[in-house]
Amino acid sequence: MKPGTRLKSAACDTEVMVIRTAGGTIECGGAAMAEEKPADAAALSPDHSNGSLMGKRYVDADNAYELLCVKPGKGSLSVDGVALVTKDAKPLPASD
Amino acid sequence: MATKVMQGVRVLEVAQFTFTPAAGAILADWGADVIKVEHPVRGDTQRGFLNLGGFQVDPMRHTLIEHPNRGKRSVGIDLSTPEGQEVLYELAKTSDVFLTNYLPHHRQKNKFDVEHIKAVKPDIIYARGSAFGAKGPDYARGGFDGTVFWSGSGIAYAHSPEELGGPLSQAIPAFGDSIGGMFIAGGISAALFHREKTGEGAVMDVSLQSTAWWAAGASLSQQMEHGVSQRAQMPTSGGMQVNPFLGNFWTSDGRTINLCILSPTGLIEDTFEHMNRPEAAKDPRFADPLSLFQNAQAASEILVEAFAEHDFAYWRERLKTLKGQWAAVINFEEMSQDEQALANDMVIEVEAPDGGPPIKLVRGPVQWNGEPLETTRAPQASEHTEIVLMESGIEWDRIEEWKAKGAIA
Predict the structure, then answer these.
(1) Which CATH class is domain B10-216+341-405?
(2) Which end of chain B, N or C, is more open, meaning fewer C-beta atoms within 10 Å of its C-beta?
(3) What does pTM read for this prediction?
(4) Does A71 touch chain B if contact means CB atoms closer than 8 Å?
(5) Tens digit of pLDDT for each residue in A17-66?
(6) HSE-up of B372 (CA within 13 Å, CB side)?
């Protein structure tokens, strides 16, 4: 799969842009994502339903995968069943 | 289709906090494609605010990121790396405006000062927001609006009655920044027109100090010309020494009505009648403006007594038909529900990054063709890095190479 590809969730509204991939199955809500939405929606797995957040990057522990959420949804992102985590900016502490 | 006067203009912003980013937000509101460059790991330092005005910040509903950054896209670039600088130059080539508030030594060290950006885009408008301007002993010194605009300008002093024993703090976060950001946006608009006519891209400066000078211009000019200027006095209920129709008056429930009838001609009778003092309107002491001024103390006492007879709600309703100028002294909670402000589309809504209800923000002061403003939420840090670079025709292999080196997010 080419980086830059957009994938859609089969189980919710989530859409991502693939930034980095290593060949595993990219999933959302427990179901494999694809460039086109399937005719019949997949069931949202309760184990993968923490939601995706607009504009956030999601990575795995080895940094082999990076997905950019371009449309949020109820499903959470995973690769081969392993949940991805958000790659957050680490701003310096400040206060007004 | 909403009017977007800056459609087709690209702004490359390397700026943090509110003052200079707010200019980018105004231009984005007006239709410009504003690309905000942020550090790939830390992002805009303002993202790290734990508190705003003493209240805890929710990083996913961060109004001080939304206010000065709505409508933009964010690209994460580490400008301390040669590759990061290369990426910045690629983006500068397709930009009309370069907007920055980094200090001079940072711009030199990371090679995005005027000469570096002009080298790749000679007619670009190079807009700088600074604390103290581009010249003089403090040109390289940083500052915030609380220091330069408010405290260091005479403004804090003028707003603080002597009896307080010390100056009031700037109680509105980013107050000077938000005013000054609009000044920068206005300057950029004029610079774009100038470039259209002459082909030349100007270098422009707006500082927090120049913002304060302009905002306080009436007092500073008076000071320089006459050696005097006004200072706030302790709050009291009553009219001014000369003009009794000018001042704050306290209502029975401890709120305040401000009267500002600078020129009372033709308004004396109407004012006293609204105060439920029709007999005063016929009093020869108040028959005409000069008599009124001579008997200011007596007139003020009548008004003070009248205002204290009814509550704030009564006066707000009662004064709706007053011919002279007046205001109810309200707070931000009341302002955010103000019918008049809402009728003029002051509130805008953007999608919330946490998926919750929309975040309400304030539109800029300029309205185009009477239309409400449509814009989008502020970007997450580095959200659009790959998308913007691909749009600029950069191939994925190069993007990956830069990513691997940590030059981009």
Answers:
(1) alpha beta
(2) N
(3) 0.93
(4) no
(5) 999 999 999 999 999 999 999 999 999 999 999 999 989 999 999 999 99
(6) 11
